[in-house]
């Protein structure tokens, strides 16, 4: 952001006895001055710097300069001008209007941090409603009562006006004089006398009386009464509304810090056609600065410039607000307005300019401002130097900060408390422990106390440079200064964690600070969390074992947080340690147990996880949806799908459990893997009925899992709905729909899906295999062969699955020549035959009664090393039955058991059929009875 070059005018009358040089206009670019010829009356007198209070310049970036205290005198006063009532000023301090105060003002305020008051865009609609919302209605409006005894002035009403000649024939001046005296002394008496004046007709065109009573109402916070009084004086008493009326109320808001209300009176002033004066803008801008109200400040400042009114403090306030809010571009505009509006700079303006540049880090420009300030006749000022030193410290330019510090005594200015504090902060930012420590020691030697920021800086430096003895000493000093022990602990932990030296904290943390940790549950939790985060689990458990606070609920929550944190930080074994050391309770904590089941599952310790689940199941604790989800996933991960289904059955019995999207998808996958088609269909229709919001993952999961459980029409509708909502199916979903359409002989839809998958780049080998298998099952050999060619053409090598599909199709159709050709191509492709290949060959040869070929395939299967599986044995038994080799079929059952393969229902069915076909009915009955006996 480019800095603007300004020509700024200074006050030529300041300390005329001291200043003999000619005051000149200023250009920041060369810091040279020349004198304007038009300087004359109307300039402002600034009290000497020796009477000024020093400003505390903080290291914090958020602290800015405040405008000066209010002082009102005449039409041109720094900050305010003109009358606020019938007097030349409004103030509760009687000495503000005296001649001895003329031309003087309090130049500076200490830095302060003020929270910005939220703006209500509807504030203009109703004064009363806004006031009540802000709780500003301190006193009810006092309404005149004609029948009240207070309207009679005599010795019986308890009001002494110190004038026995007051009556209904008294002049307005006499009445106003008494009202003015009462207003300064007693609000109640002033209100009573005002009622008497109202009854006796003393308020007609009496602006003075109304101004005085508005002061009273402003002090009392009776804003409804003030609003009614303004309407009354305009409509009933025939008074002309002037800026004095509204200035009185704005001044009251300024003293109370009521930003929004002050803005209301200002806008009401404009709505009534009353032109503000310099005092109006001075008070308003100071008020807006207190509340950091940018919008209202901009409006008032723009109005002031449009009216050609010059209020020096308003410029300072606007610049301070922009600087405080870090609106540096707009701050530069205000600096430009100093030159454009030919503002005569006073001390406040100079210091605000200096601060604005320092806050932006423009220290070169700030140096030029300081030089120009000196040339303009202003004596060296500790506030200005402190501001610059703080600015250099914030950008860690301690060479220039040290030079400024050395210049102080040369120019006759002693460094103060703020100077040393700023030097400590600057050297701290520069990470120079020795220099920071030197200024820290000097600050204390001079009798000053370091502030919390200095202590924080020193503590961080001591931690970083390994000065543990000084760390302990600084902690004790922080406690002696009244710092909160919880805050000290937080600073200490933050400093050591930043350097990854948290393991040093146990040796540092002792004495009263450690006692505080053991007694305060919040500090205790902060410490043990820091230990857990840094894998210091034994230290954390030691603190928990020594703690002296008792709060069962907080303790459970803390242990749960520690357990979850151990898992998140990648140390599940620490979570087990924390859980083991927990105090035993009669009623288990559901959340802790749930987290531990998950952690044990992560460690593959399913036995411990199941123990915890069974403990919960046998207790009176009702499981929630999250617990059921964790337990289900535990069983799925362990491979116990039937147990997972039993957990889902138990969940369904609890009517108040509503599964979330993730659990619903888990349920679908489990039911699919367990081949529970009825459960899948039931769950699907529940989803449709319940109105669950479907996303892309839900559509894919339902289609993939329910493909064998739902009618093809319903799956097709669901797939089309998915596409209609703009969700792109994944490869698995495309392949599932290919399989569904292929098995249903809906080849047109299958080709559409396949084409869509190819366009999306999602067609894979399984897609081709699925389509080839579908054509093979339908004996559509032409399309089957064509798809195989396309598969090879599109860069996919013909897979073993594709060969198996073609073998099965040609073999079942009896096209043995093509069957043999496919076998030859399979051998030439380099693919090794799998169980499916051998089983197809055994089945085809067996169906044809080619028992020799079956024996050859069986021998090859055994020689390959993979050996027969359950399907192979079942197929062989069927083939031996067809060939009449019953004894061999029975021997196969014995061989299966010998090889550890348990016969299934198909095994016994094929064996019984073989016995029956070969007239072995008695043997068939025996095997049939055996099937029933074993429950098949």
Description:
With 936 residues, this protein is mostly helical. The chain is built from 46 helices and 4 strands. Strands 3-2-1-4 form a 4-stranded mixed β-sheet. A hairpin with a 4-residue loop joins strand 2 (25-27) and strand 3. The longest helix has 17 residues, at 552-568. The protein is elongated.
Percent of residues in β-strands: under 5%
Q: Uncertain regions: pLDDT < 50 for 5+ in a row?
A: 1-159
How many strands, which pairing sense, and closed or not: the largest β-sheet? 4 strands, mixed
- Mean pLDDT, as a whole number? 80
Strand order, sheet with most strands: 3-2-1-4
Shape: elongated
Keywords: Repeat
InterPro entries: PPR_rpt, TPR-like_helical_dom_sf
PPR repeats: 206-241, 242-276, 346-380, 381-415, 416-450, 624-658, 695-729, 730-764, 799-833, 834-868, 869-903
Family: Belongs to the PPR family. P subfamily.
Main attributes?
936 residues; mainly alpha; four-stranded mixed sheet; 46 helices; 4 strands; 62% helix; disordered N terminus
Task: Outline the secondary-structure elements.
Elements: E1 7-10, E2 25-27, E3 32-34, H1 127-133, H2 172-185, H3 187-199, H4 207-220, H5 223-235, H6 243-256, H7 259-271, H8 278-291, H9 294-306, H10 312-324, H11 328-340, E4 344-345, H12 347-360, H13 363-375, H14 382-394, H15 398-410, H16 417-429, H17 433-445, H18 452-464, H19 468-480, H20 485-498, H21 505-508, H22 512-519, H23 521-533, H24 537-546, H25 552-568, H26 572-581, H27 590-602, H28 606-618, H29 625-638, H30 641-653, H31 661-673, H32 677-690, H33 696-705, H34 712-724, H35 731-743, H36 747-759, H37 765-777, H38 781-793, H39 800-813, H40 816-829, H41 835-848, H42 851-863, H43 870-882, H44 886-898, H45 905-917, H46 921-933
Parallel strand pairs: 1-4
Antiparallel strand pairs: 1-2, 2-3
InterPro entries: PPR_rpt, TPR-like_helical_dom_sf
Keywords: Repeat
Organism: Datura stramonium
